[in-house]
Design goal:
Layout lengths: L3 E5 L3 H12 L3 E5 L32 H4 L16 H14 L6 E2 L3 E7 L3 H4 L2 E6 L5 E6 L1 E4 L6 E2 L15 E4 L13 E5 L3 H11 L4 E5 L6 E2 L9 H5 L2 H9 L2 H15 L19 E2 L3 H6 L3 E4 L2 E5 L2 E4 L4 E2 L4 E4 L3 E2 L33 E3 L10 H15 L8 H17 L1
Parallel strand pairs: 1-2, 1-7, 2-3, 7-20, 9-18, 10-11, 10-18, 11-14, 12-13
Antiparallel strand pairs: 4-5, 5-6, 8-19, 15-16, 16-17
Helix pairs in contact: 1-10
The protein binds flavin-adenine dinucleotide and 2-acetamido-2-deoxy-beta-D-glucopyranose (NAG).
Membrane topology: Single-pass membrane protein
Subcellular location: Endoplasmic reticulum membrane
Cofactor: FAD
Length: about 425
């Protein structure tokens, strides 16, 4: 009988999980290591270890209509695409409306989550936490929802680049980047064309002397605005489109989408043309990048190869001199240091999860990881659905397939992802 559920983290995933546990008659207890809710949307002036960190100007890339929780619309005076501080405010309103704060223990870090000796019968866990006075506490729970975020550990591949130790400028990861103040009048290379790379290059280019944006694979770049000025995700994420994507040949869909994009700005002329097709990877959402390229404020570069003193060398042999700083927007890896290492089964030394949520060999299935996925749309309502499913599995109202079946699914999804 599952009753008490530990929720690790009070970001938007954690808040949704608390709400859904209460809906299902469970007793959630949430542990949050910081002193506030909101997770990565709670902007801090300095990045904190093991936690996601955002830049001051960050504006969401999904519209308010699509990203709100199903039972709590966004305030009507919000713009369609809001600043990060307004999204945090929305999460405050959500927590207040459903009275969620009373389930949260702030400044309490989960150190470890361990199966109890009688786990195969009870499904219970022992959770060790450290409170704000440094005291260790032990708790027993019937189930665990892990909502600790996954943009937490920056990957800075410096040693991949020849001569990096000779570089006289500053190297930093986007995790450390807050605003463009330090880059006024400077010559800056931004590496990586994910969403952050595009945003940061555009922002720096407004005050820097010159900004170079280096890309390994190129990117299909879309604005937040679709036909008739409708928010992109509202225009695209529709059942009818899902049906069409399944019926029509992929090459046709790609051809049509790429043609429409190239009609706005030819991705070859703009130095953006990716090797991959439109539907194969995540797109870059950026309203300003093509304009900054058109004005010469941003110059596109291919893969970064190495450094020589103040010079930066690119794969095509070009060299940019007197570079003051390189900002690496090279992504993150997810780590769950508090989970038992036995959950990192399989050959890949990472937590192996069925549908990105359930460790396949846990019997009974009383632990799930939330929000550990990429969607071509907003994360919040997706996590809400995922949490409802997880709770139903805890309660035995929904069943997982056999371990063998789950491992098969994991492997085939993995193969598909690697291909992409
Ligand atoms: C730059 C950027 C922009 C994005 N923009 C969008 C967007 O526009 N739209 C969208 O849908 N998605 C966006 N995303 C995706 C984003 O991941 C989700 O929006 C979402 O905020 C993730 O929330 P979360 O609750 O899962 O994790 P987080 O917000 O990271 O929260 C995790 C929480 O867990 C706490 N925690 C961690 N470890 C422990 C521990 N051991 N003990 C106790 N507490 C712990 C942390 O302190 C934190 O409060 C963006 C991501 C990034 C990086
Ligand atoms: C929004 O930006 C985040 C962070 O870069 C990214 O993970 C997510 O996929 C983006 N969403 C969309 C719909 O492109």
């Amino acid at each position: 009988m599952v009753r008490r559920v530990a929720v690790v983290g009070a970001g938007c995933s954690g808040l949704a999980c608390i709400k859904i546990c209460v809906d299902e008659g469970l007793e959630p207890v949430c542990f949050e290591s910081s002193d506030d809710i909101g997770g990565m949307w709670n902007f801090r002036e300095t990045p904190e270890p093991d936690r996601t960190s955002i830049y001051r100007s960050l504006v969401v890339n999904t519209s308010k209509e699509m990203m709100c929780f199903s039972d709590f619309p966004m305030p009507s005076d919000y713009p369609n695409f809001m600043h990060n501080s307004q999204l945090l405010q929305y999460f405050r309103l959500y927590a207040e409306h459903f009275d969620l704060l009373r389930y949260i223990n702030f400044q309490t870090t989960v150190r470890s989550v361990l199966q109890r000796p009688d786990f195969s019968l009870s499904g219970q866990w022992e959770v060790v936490t450290i409170n704000k006075n440094g005291q260790e506490e032990r708790h027993i729970f019937d189930a665990i929802l892990v909502c600790s975020g996954h943009y937490t550990h920056p990957t800075l591949p410096l040693s991949d680049f020849q001569g990096h130790e000779t570089f006289s400028g500053r190297c930093l990861h986007s995790w450390e980047y807050k605003d463009a103040n330090a880059f006024t009048g400077k010559r800056v290379v931004v590496v990586g064309t994910g969403n952050s790379g595009g945003d940061i290059a555009v922002e720096i280019s407004r005050s820097a002397e010159k900004t170079f944006l280096s890309t390994r694979q190129g990117a299909w770049v879309l604005g937040r605005m679709s036909t008739n000025g409708v928010p992109l995700d509202i225009a695209v994420i529709k059942r009818i489109n899902n049906v069409l994507f399944q019926l029509l040949p992929k090459t046709l869909v790609n051809w049509a989408a790429e043609r429409a994009l190239n009609n706005k700005y030819d991705h070859i002329l703009y130095g953006l043309k990716p090797k991959h097709r439109h539907m194969e990877r995540n797109l870059m959402i950026n309203d300003d990048l093509p304009g900054r390229i058109l004005q010469g404020a941003i110059v596109m570069k291919n893969n970064l190869e190495g450094f020589k003193d103040s010079r930066v060398v690119f794969e095509d042999g070009t060299v940019e001199k007197n570079i003051d700083a390189v900002v690496f927007c090279t992504g993150y890896i997810a780590k769950f240091p508090f989970l038992p290492s036995t959950l990192s089964e399989g050959p890949y030394e990472e937590v192996t999860l069925y549908k990105r949520a359930f460790p396949p060999s846990l019997q009974p299935p009383t632990l799930a990881v939330m929000g550990l996925f990429q969607v071509k749309g907003p994360l919040m309502p997706t996590v809400e659905m995922q949490a409802r499913w997880a709770v139903k599995v805890f309660l035995g109202q929904s069943r997982l397939p056999t371990k063998e079946k789950m491992l098969d699914v994991i492997e085939s999804e993995r193969r598909r992802n690697m291909q992409r």
